[in-house]
Amino acid sequence: MLPRCNKNCSRLKRMSEITGCLSIEEEVHSSPLTYSSCKNSSYKSRIPGESSWTSQDRYCWLQYSRNLSNQQNDVASQPIRSHCGRYVLVFSGHINNHLEIRRGLRNQIWKGNSDVETLVEGLAQRNTSLLVDLRGVFAFAFYDTETRQLLLARDRLGVKSLWWQKQDTKLCFSSNVRQLFQDKLKLAPSCVSHYLSFGYYPMEGELGEGIYPLPPGTLMRIGPDSSPTFLRWWPPSPRPDWTPLPIKRRRDAVKLIRQELERVIQEHISSDRPINCLLTNDSSSKIVAALAAQHSSKPIKTFSVHIQDSSIPKNGITDFANHIGAFHQEIYISSKEYIEFFTKAIKTLELPSFQAAHSCVIGNALKRSGVQTIMFGFESQKALGVHLSGLVLMARLARLRVFELWPKVMQVMNSRLFSMAEDAPWLDAWHLLLAGHRLATNAELKTTNLQALDWPKPPSCRLTQFLPRIFWNDLFGYVEPFLLRDIDQMERIVGIETKLPLFDHRLLELLLRIPEAFYLMSWDRSLLEIACQDLLPRWIMRSKMSLKNVSLTGKHMEKLQSEVILSIFNEVNPIPTQILNKERNIDSLLYQNNLPLITSNLG
Question: Which chain regions cross the lipid bilayer (predicted)?
């Protein structure tokens, strides 16, 4: 059972959030959003957990909110000014290499070791050219008090969320989308259809009430006399050299991947903090834990979360933890606790979804067990090439140039996939990828008078190889809007810091440049697994089916999650419920996304 905490501890708490507004024609006299009004514009005037700043001319207002239970001594107060006093920054996230960046800046009298102070000084001296050197996850707003220009930016993969909205003569932004809605969450019709079709919200386009997400790897600049301008800063322009690496042997590629994996893990290991890893039933989490144990100077601690009254055996996790020399702790939650956490999460989430609420259950269980920071890898199969059998077949068909035969092949071999892709504008790799995640057809949407699915456009891609292009599409068409966005919500609501070393951009760039012929050589193992095969037990490499024993499906959870999605849409956008019950779409959603698998993934 989870340790019993007081009521304040059991509540879902929010971590850091940034919010602000830039007025083009009129002064900002108070908070334009749902936060408390900015009663005092003095930069030094603060209240615990929430601090705000208003420019002297009252045309810009910035606010930073943090979870008091997660304060750290080396965290600088926000909003923070540059040493010259000209620039002001609010920031959410963490920069892994900020001390390295400091060495390239002009001599300063640093007040502490905070990455926030490094970022504001770096932007003040190097402007947007600093972005390409940042390694970490972040979303920030940077204001120039002289030119009255506001800069918004997100990290490369969009781990940290940032939303913006044009309100008459104001531009408002927030990392919490609920702050931008006037009343309750009111989704656009196209957004509702997209969620029912895929189980997650669209990566681009209007969410509702003129609210848009700032795309990953993008910066937005707006001044007093101009409209917002957008620049995709990653991948960098001009075109990066992402052509295949001149590697002739697979063992050389595997060696290069191993070196990059070790570098990434070492960057995420902090000498002054406990090293906590979440173990799940996928190989990614085990790779992260094994490398962390190898490169840490002190024993690491691993965790797994289980339903207490589940009858499914949990063998495998503890054996692996003993194999790498980690101290392992199994966290048990009862069905009653799961229902309690899940219900609280649904009521607290900015964008309610199955996956996000399930992530909050795991995050809250870890938090109540004393975990402040957790490092893990989760199943991003297509983005990182963990299970490639379907994509390998797709790539081989591409080499044979038989795309025109796909409709007939699919109709015979996979009738469900064919039905999900039948109304797609094209039967190319992008739309087939989306069809594989699709849950409801246009015919089913039509029965409830909902708008037909507006198929999202593929993300811009500069890769020359077919298989890496598939990885890229899946990364920004599924992993970012579905998995990473929900992890960000969980982190801010529960108040636990998450680290995702396998989503380091340099590691991803390397994997995208590995010659695809090396991926085509293996059906059952990824290059990541081959690169770490000396660290993983042989029984893991021989049989992945045995790992399914740690999956806790628990059919008693199906009814709960079915009821929750009905309550979501009754509260958010009242719609007929037939589409949710037709042909047990709820169950297909649960099992397709592994939602009942408590130890399957956080995202």
Answer: none
> In this structure, are 257 and 312 located in the same domain?
yes
| CATH number of the domain where residue 180 is located | 3.60.20.10
Helix axes 389-400, 429-437, angle to 10 degrees: 160
> Residue 124 has what DSSP assignment?
H
CB count within 10 Å of CB 190 equals 19
Q: For 143-193, what is each residue's pLDDT tens digit?
A: 999 999 999 999 999 999 999 998 888 899 999 998 898 767 788 888 888
pLDDT value at 561 more than 60: no
Structure tokens at 160: 């940290």
Q: Would you place residue 383 in the very low, low, confident or very high pLDDT band (cuts 50, 70, 90)? A: very low
Range 253-257 average pLDDT: 94
CA nearest 257: which of 513, 562, 589? 513
Answer yes or no: is 168 within a domain. Answer: yes
Q: Are residues 79 and 94 in the same domain?
A: yes
Query: Is pLDDT above 80 for 572?
Result: no
Q: Are residues 376 and 503 in the same domain?
A: yes
The domain total for the chain is: 3
Q: Tell me if 305 is assigned to a ligand binding site.
A: yes
Q: Per-residue DSSP letters for 139-155?
A: EEEEEETTTTEEEEEE-
Please report whether residue 237 resides in a domain. no
Same domain assignment for residues 71 and 215:
yes
Q: In Å, what is the CA distance from 563 to each residue of 197, 263, 354, 601? A: 18, 45, 11, 22
Which structural domain, as residue segments, surrounds residue 567? 250-385+469-592
Q: What is the pLDDT of residue 563?
A: 53
Contacts of 121 (CB under 8 A, 6+ apart): 82, 83, 102, 105, 108
How high is the pLDDT of residue 413? 66
DSSP state of 413: H
The amino acid occupying position 555 is K
pLDDT at site 3: 37
Residue 243 lies in a domain: no
Q: How confident is the model at residue 347 (pLDDT cuts 50, 70, 90)?
A: confident
Residue 370 sits in the same domain as residue 435:
no
379 and 397 assigned to the same domain: no
The region, left, alpha or beta by phi > 0 then psi within -120 to 50, assigned to residue 93 is left
Whether the CB-CB separation of 519 and 392 falls below 8 Å is answered with yes
Confirm or deny that 423 is annotated as ligand binding. no
Cite the beta strand spans of 324-468 per DSSP E. 327-333, 373-375
Residue where one domain finishes, among candidates 458, 477, 510: 458
Q: Give 305's DSSP letter.
A: E
Closest listed residue to residue 490, CA positions, set 570, 330, 601, 335: 601
Q: What is the CATH number of the domain that holds 557?
A: 3.40.50.620
* Total-model pTM: 0.84
Q: Are residues 428 and 552 in the same domain?
A: no
Does residue 258 share a domain with residue 214?
no
The H or E element spanning position 230 is strand 229-232
Q: Which residues contact 181 (CB under 8 A, 6 or more apart)?
A: 208, 209, 211
- The fraction of the chain above a pLDDT of 70, given in percent, is 71
pLDDT (0 to 100) of residue 81: 93
Taking CA atoms, 567 is separated from 194, 519, 577, in Å, by 18, 43, 10
